[in-house]
């Protein structure tokens, strides 16, 4: 079994978060939401995307980045940031079973201090001129690769 987790930094589109929560429910992963989010956790679009899968999600909400970091460091877990600014391909990185895979806010990614705090940063290569992949799609691709390696 893996203890891999997905963390969402201040997500602002409830349908994406609901889709990711359904993903983690199906893959058996834990999930962290670093608040403030741009919506309430009871948002109907989140519920529509997450459906009844939400009932089996192991979700931890952190009131802010500092509280998340305090918890993560005391747990001794590595933080792997998915970023369009990264240099290392997500398929070249060696994941550990207790890594936390961090994804940025849909509108703005993550600020520099969060980018710098990560232990590693990985990118899904894109064709020239494209800006970014949907956050839920990114999470599925990177979690899939991490699980392939550690399962
Ligand atoms: C819609 S994107 C954010 C776009 C934002 N304007 C930015 O500059 O980061 C939301 C999140 O999905 C993930 N993401 C999107 N495309 C990615 C890629 N090609 N490689 C790695 N992560 C990606 C990142 O975690 C990103 O913060």
TrEMBL record:
Catalysed reaction, written as an equation: 5-carboxymethylaminomethyluridine(34) in tRNA(Leu) + S-adenosyl-L-methionine = 5-carboxymethylaminomethyl-2'-O-methyluridine(34) in tRNA(Leu) + S-adenosyl-L-homocysteine + H(+); cytidine(34) in tRNA + S-adenosyl-L-methionine = 2'-O-methylcytidine(34) in tRNA + S-adenosyl-L-homocysteine + H(+)
GO terms, biological process: wobble position ribose methylation
Main localisation: cytoplasm
Enzyme class: transferase
Molecular function (Gene Ontology), one example: S-adenosylmethionine-dependent methyltransferase activity
Keywords (A to Z) from UniProt: Cytoplasm, Methyltransferase, S-adenosyl-L-methionine, Transferase, tRNA processing
UniProt cross-references to InterPro entries, sorted A to Z: Alpha/beta_knot_MTases, SpoU_MeTrfase, TrmL, tRNA_m1G_MTases_N
Subcellular location: Cytoplasm
Domain tRNA/rRNA methyltransferase SpoU type positions: 4-142
E.C. numbers: 2.1.1.207
SUPFAM superfamilies to which the protein is assigned, alphabetical: alpha/beta knot
Positions annotated to bind S-adenosyl-L-methionine: 104, 124, 132
Source taxon at top rank: Bacteria
GO CC list: cytoplasm
Quaternary organization: Homodimer.
Annotated function: Methylates the ribose at the nucleotide 34 wobble position in the two leucyl isoacceptors tRNA(Leu)(CmAA) and tRNA(Leu)(cmnm5UmAA). Catalyzes the methyl transfer from S-adenosyl-L-methionine to the 2'-OH of the wobble nucleotide.
Family in the record: Belongs to the class IV-like SAM-binding methyltransferase superfamily. RNA methyltransferase TrmH family. TrmL subfamily.
Protein name as catalogued: tRNA (cytidine(34)-2'-O)-methyltransferase
């Amino acid at each position: 079994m893996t203890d891999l987790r997905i963390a969402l930094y201040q997500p602002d589109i409830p349908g994406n978060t609901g889709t990711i929560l359904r993903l983690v429910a199906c893959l058996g992963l834990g999930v962290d939401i670093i608040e403030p989010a741009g919506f309430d956790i009871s948002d109907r679009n989140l519920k529509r995307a997450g459906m009844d899968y939400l009932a089996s999600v192991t979700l931890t909400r952190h009131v802010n980045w500092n509280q998340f970091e305090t918890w993560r460091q005391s747990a001794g877990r590595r933080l792997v940031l998915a970023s369009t600014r990264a240099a290392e391909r997500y398929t070249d990185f060696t994941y550990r079973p207790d890594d936390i895979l961090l994804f940025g806010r849909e509108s703005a990614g993550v600020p520099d201090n969060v980018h710098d705090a990560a232990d590693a940063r990985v990118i899904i290569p894109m064709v020239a001129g494209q800006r970014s992949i949907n956050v839920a799609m990114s999470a599925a691709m990177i979690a899939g690769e991490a699980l392939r390696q550690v399962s």
